[in-house]
Amino acid sequence: MWFFARDPIRDFPFELSPEPPESSPPGPWVLHRGRKKATGSAVSIFVYDVKPGAEEQTQVAKAAFKRLKTLRHPNILAYIDGLETEKCLHMVTEAVTPLGTYLKARAEAGGLKEQELSWGLHQIVKALSFLVNDCNLIHSNVCMAAVFVDRAGEWKLGGLDYMYSAQGNGGGPPQKGIPELEQYDPPELADGSGRTIKEKWSADMWRLGCLIWEVFNGSLPRAAALRNPGKIPKSLVTHYCELVGANPKVRPNPAHFLQNCRAPGGFMNNRFVETNLFLEEIQIKEPAEKQKFFQELSKSLDSFPEDFCRHKVLPQLLTAFEFGSAGAVVLTPLFKVGKFLSAEEYQQKIIPVVVKMFSSTDRAMRIRLLQQMEQFIQYLDEPTVNTQIFPHVVHGFLDTNPAIREQTVKSMLLLAPKLNEANLNVELMKHFARLQAKDDQGPIRCNTTVCLGKIGSYLSASTRHRVLTSAFSRATKDPFAPSRVAGVLGFAATHNLYSLNDCAHKILPVLCSLTVDPEKSVRDQAFKAIRSFLSKLESVSEDPSQLTEVEKDVHAASSPGTGGAAASWAGWAVTGVSSLTSKLIRAHPTTMSAETSVPQRPVPEGNPAPAPAPVPDTPATSSHWETQEEDKDTAEDSSAADRWDDEDWGSLEQEAESVLAQQDDWSARGQGSGAGQVSHPDHKSPESDWSSWEAEGSWDQGWQEPSSLEPAPEGTRLASEYNWGGAEPSDKGDPFAALSVRPSAQPRPDADSWGEDNWEGLEAESRQMKAELARKKREERRKEIEAKRAEKKATKGPMKLGARKLD
């Protein structure tokens, strides 16, 4: 019964878009946009409505439906589905746009590049070659109306309405009956002179010439206009003239036409066409060829169309990584193409690949990922970073390759804002402590300090209080000069995170010791930092009500906004982090590893041997101070009233240049310096308050102070011999005794010179006095123990083995 009948259009799995149809090319078909009902993917739907009295056009439409359904070629419009009823015909194809509409839209946006046009024409000629040479079919409708463009910018040949067999078994060419299409017919058919066509491709090659003319010059007004090439490129004019020659015998075969245009200097001999041809055959290429191709692809992507990169290059890159052996070379072009994607597309296509790459053991891939992390870090969410990426990244801290360790440290600048409490404040700090204390590469120790200063604002308040002062204090004792500079600037970048007690009792004493550093760059930064910290203390001293405002950030929760000074620090930190390590490691690989090879002084019997640590190559002042108990902080956070954000802290890379020039001299002097001093067990260093980490990765294992057993230089007076104006001479060593030099005894040094002899005398005297005091204490302790033992023996007497107690 009629009410059981089903509407085939309603059950069709595709539906037409409510938008009006696009400007359809001449012919029986009307082009509509559409989508698949199940997935919503875009398609194009060609619709023909059967009209009474138009049986000839209906037969043409049905023939085109059949041809498109059976022909499969990359350069021919791809058939997806179809519907044939008594009232209409529907042909569903890939989503395409008519070439005329596409060229007009691109002209408004600046026009197509010549390389894009060359590839488009290459595709149409290749489709004609397939039809003529492989299928023995004559297209008979090659024109602007029969060419369509997909979303990747690929040209597709359609308009199969008037196709016929070249062997003549299906009859001659059908009549078009449409003037807009008949103007592209060759003269031997139009004038009816009876001239025979000697080659089966002659008519289609004439029409190809008309298409080339329209692509460069616009709509063809009449056939006589073909005599003037117009804007056709010179490299194509010669071959174009062969196509539109009056003699059909001289028109080339499509395959020969392609070969001629691909010759050196030809119109289709360019990088864009070569890239497309390689991508079409990439599945059968050798692995070595793929590697070379992907390495060179990144340089060319900037000149390629955006649509081509998104829809053609990207799928091939993802396939090459997923199923091929391309490896790390895919990363650079992959991230370049990723710039053209929306955030949603990036999450769907790129991020799953990136997460999988981080689990790879290939060092080349790991270092490429770390180097280019800034290109995709914004698309990573925190759970993904903490559970799938960070556990793999931290292995780089323990890698034997310095380049891997360097890139891992640098990547923490980007990962830190997304790390959770445990990974940031526990795991990461443990690795940073190990690197700063034990890494044999000075630039990596320097970068660790730089990175810690940059991420200080993300740390919790308790971690900041426990870590920052100790870490930066250790950096100021590093034998590598840029590391000492980084320590000073680390204090500067995180100045708002310290209480005034820390500034006065911990930070300023450390900075003051750097005012006599052998490197002028270190001294300059130290003086600048001291002045700023002093001005901060002085301002609170003048107005105690400012204390709360100055210390408002000290106990604040971790927040990106608390690191205001870190932004000004970026002027040198980013530069230093990006190139300093690689430059110094490659320039002087042996020098930096030699700075830790200074022999250690023999350890007295009975004392534990200290862990090996780098020793400064030049004598450093041995200044230890007793830390005072801090009052309970009542402040809330730190101050914006200081001037750190306006300070220009210089360029670490400039300092590195001077380091490179003096590196060999440092090593030579370092070998002759004193060995590491054995610290007294009763003495507590400023770093010893952070003892929660295990021994191998603790910030407490700072750079050990050098000790010198050399006698004081001649003429240097001990502090006990100097008369300070009192009745009795002082019996304690005074570190300023060596600085008390009478003007008549020695000439005054220049303003920029530093009396190294005086500093060495001061250090030698101070060390000798401390060594003497330590020896006396040990001697007194030994006598005490012996006295106690003698007293025990006298009271009880010696016991003999085997003696029996008698009644």
UniProtKB/TrEMBL annotation:
UniProt biased composition (Basic and acidic residues): 764-774, 781-794
Renumbered to this chain, the Polar residues biased-composition regions fall at 590-599
Protein task: Regulates COPI-mediated retrograde protein traffic at the interface between the Golgi apparatus and the endoplasmic reticulum. Involved in the maintenance of the Golgi apparatus morphology.
> Which SMART domains does this UniProt record tie to the protein?
S_TKc (SM00220)
Query: Which residue numbers delimit the Protein kinase domain?
Result: 1-314
User: Per the record's keyword annotation, is Transport included, yes or no?
Assistant: yes
Q: Which GO terms describe its cellular component?
A: centrosome; cis-Golgi network; COPI vesicle coat; cytosol; endoplasmic reticulum-Golgi intermediate compartment
PANTHER family tied to this protein: N-TERMINAL KINASE-LIKE PROTEIN (PTHR12984:SF3), SCY1-RELATED S/T PROTEIN KINASE-LIKE (PTHR12984)
Biased composition regions of type Low complexity, renumbered to the chain: 556-567
Q: Which family does it belong to?
A: Belongs to the protein kinase superfamily.
Q: Which gene encodes it?
A: Scyl1
PROSITE patterns from the entry?
HEAT_REPEAT, PROTEIN_KINASE_DOM
Per UniProt, subcellular location reads as: Cytoplasm, Cytoskeleton, Microtubule organizing center, Centrosome; Endoplasmic reticulum-Golgi intermediate compartment; Golgi apparatus, cis-Golgi network
Name this polypeptide is given: N-terminal kinase-like protein
